[in-house]
Structures are given as structure tokens and as C-alpha cells.
Amino acid sequence: MYDLNDAQPQMAPLGELIPDGTFAKVKMTIRPGGVNGSTPADAGLLKASQTSDARMLDCEFTIVSGPYARRKFWQNFTVAGGKLDEKGQSKGWNISKSAFRAMIDSALGLDPKDESAAAKGKRVIQGLKQLDGIAFAARIMIEPASTPQYRDQNKLANIVLPGEPQYAAVMRGETMQPDPVNAKPRKAAETPAAPAPAWGAPPAPTPASGDVPWANQGTPNQGTPKPPGAAAPGPAWLNG
Length: 240
Prior knowledge:
The structure is a single chain. The protein has four helices and six strands, in the order ββββααββαα. By secondary structure, the protein is of the alpha+beta class. It has a domain at about 20-170. Strands 1, 2, 3, 4, 5 and 6 form a six-stranded antiparallel beta sheet that branches. The radius of gyration is 20 Å and the shape is globular.
């Protein structure tokens, strides 16, 4: 016998988007892509871009509560490679780093302006893997497709931070009036030029032992390495 009375409501039809500007508490899950990150904790964690040297964090977001509970959307965050700024750093990583800091501030209720030693300590992670499972307040947008063959998609518009009017209610799971983004379609990516034949260019230098091509393109500073065998502390949002 099966008692189906406690079954959850049906999921929304496939392809139905979360309304533009929806506020919700979301949980982030990292989907490993098989490419190693810059720390042992991130072995096999990243995903390689198919069009550039960028390395990305492939993330799934699940709405925790409210009318869109259990709905999901997906987004990549560049953590190395791709376009560089005037300092030779990855533009994508700088954008992602700001988002990751905001996630931690939102998850832990940290004032973004708090630069105390205690707050700074909570913003230090041993690897990107520690962001797996973080839950925070978010505003969700609809990103229009850049070309007709693709569908519009839900994406993070911004992370809602302590001090913003919607923050406390969103973290309590309350329903808030949406604030639409009304984003314009992104420009379609240009087809990359075909590479020159291998025999027409000098051989590439062999990287130093343990190095990777994107190591100096804006990857995060890992600080002093931990001694072998030392266990990395868990992130604050999991330890309470």
C-alpha cells in the first residue's frame, strides 16, 4: 500500500521560467566538471570552456522555500582564464569573486562593510569546494536568449545582502514582490577564428612542474599552504 497524501505538489512544466525579479532563498550545489582547480580541495571541480581557456564553476541553484520551492536554474562562474584586464587578471574571476563574497555575506548575515578581523576570517575559504551547499538570499532574473535557437534562461540577477530591504524577509522564506530586471538579450558570441597550423608557430614553452596555463590569470591567493594531513576547517555556513 502507498499513501500518497503527503506527496509534494507537481513540479512546474519543463521550460516554465521563474518570473523575472523574483526574490528567493536559494541553495547552491556545485556540479564537478572533471578539471582540477588550484587547490587540492578543488580536484576535478571545475569545468573547461569549449570556446576559450576559461575554467568555470558549474553551479545549480535550488529555491529553498516559497511558491517556487524546489525549482532550479543553472549558472557558470569563471574562476580562471578568459578575457584579461589591464593588469593581466581574469575579468571573469574578478566578477565571480565579488559574487562569492556576496554569497558568504548573505549566508552569514555579514554587513558587507564589516572589515573586522572576525568578518574577514569568515570570508576566507580553503577552496571553492567549500561553497558547495551555501544558501543565501537572491534576486532571480530572466536572461533573454542571444539567438532564436536558444531559450531564455533564469540566472542570478544579484545576491541580496544584509541591510537591503528584502533581505530579512527572503531569508525567512517570505514571499516578496518581484523587482523585474527586464534584461536585454546578450550579444551572440562570435565564432572564434581557426588557429594557425602547428607547423607555422614556435613550440609553446613547457610549464613549470605543478603549474597550469591559467595559474597567473587572476586565480585567488591561496595564502600559506597547510601542512600535509591537516584537515581544512569546514565553511562557517556548515559549522554554524
